[in-house]
Amino acid sequence: KALAQGSAGLINTAKTSSASLAPAAEDAAGKVNAIVDAAKHAAATVFDPELQRQLFDSCRSVCNSTASLIDASRSVHDAPNDQALVSTLNTSGKEFADNVSAFVAKIKEVDAENAKGVTAATTALDAIRSAVPEVTSGSPPTVEPSVEAMVDASKKVAAVSAQVVSAMRSSPEALAVAATAAQDAPLELLVQGKAASTDGDADAQEPT
Description:
86% of the residues lie in helices and 0% in strands. It has helices at 2-16, 22-44, 49-78, 83-136, 147-168, 172-205.
């Protein structure tokens, strides 16, 4: 946004003012450097090589169009009555705006890609939280108590926990899959735990 606003000032100065373009051009160059750094950091979080390539290509287009815009602005500043140069500046401005919009869209795509795993994990946590009151209520258990089932459910929880930890070091897609799988295992363990607890309470109440 800051680069887009600065470009508007650059174009206006070139067309309507005799003031030096140097400050506006230097400001634009500085913002481009910041955008390049931001693109590098964003790319480092992306596991998809194709998305990385698209991000860098989009950033490169912004850099190139900024340079073209600065050159066109200088030409118009030196010859403000040359309509051909003014037309070139207008075209450069439009291309610059289009490239900045495309770059912003690509950054949002990267952000959405990286959020897949977190979104799935949040959904899984919400599902578990919403199920806890039902499992811990006084309603009868929905399954028969079984030591084997409790052991199996515990093993599943351990397995999906390891899967989530591994996926966190992998990709957002892997984390999303692991988080979805991890949703069912704790719920199964809760259900089995309730059955075992209810059965234990009943045994304790039987007369000796």
